[in-house]
Amino acid sequence: MKQLLAVILISLSPAALAQTAPPAQQAPARQTDAEERLHNDFAWLGRYQEANAKVTGPVEVVFMGDSITQGWFDMMPNFFTPGRQGRGISGQTTQQMLLRFRQDVIDLHPRVVQIMAGTNDIAGNTGPMTPEQTKANLMSMAELARAHGIRVILASIPPADHFPWRPGIAPAAKIAALNDWMKDYAARTGAVYADYWSALHDGQAFKAAWSSDGVHPNKAGYAVMAPVAEAAIRSALAKPAPKAMRQ
Predict the structure, then answer these.
(1) CATH number of 210's domain
(2) Does the model's pTM come out above 0.90?
């Protein structure tokens, strides 16, 4: 009997209770600003609302894109002469750009839009995406532009043989396939294809002297891109404006 009582007392000791009691619920980790924004403003519509409200005068070109477009504006502001608006947001996928396309492109009434997107789709920044989903989003943006009388430049995805923030992904073949599709789609729809890939590549990779990390251009890289952009803009402006839909 004494032995049984001892066993019961040991089983009820604080140490034993601590082992059998369910663990205390941990406080949720604090979300980063980027994570909070994905929940509260998925497309980051707030990023350019103030800048859009300040746009006056005619807009010739809007550059819609991700970090490569944002970096162009940040690092080479002299390229963005009056009438050129940069609307790049780092890390964005085509689905996010499609959501903000009306606000950041259509409502500015540009003559031309350049759409540079796809890098972050391949990286899966907002979750896994198929090439078909990326193509659908690109087509939707191009169709929206044409429906509002805006000429379209489809920019090739720049070269990359790795993504520093997504180890293990081999993007080169996927980039090449999407670029081939964009070139063909541009030819079929009267858009202009801006071939940055051919200007920047070294094999399947981004030429090292023109990039800081194998994905994003440095100032030398943007200097190489500028003539490609200028030629694409001239070519787009030489085309008749698409017939806008009746509103």
Answers:
(1) 3.40.50.1110
(2) no
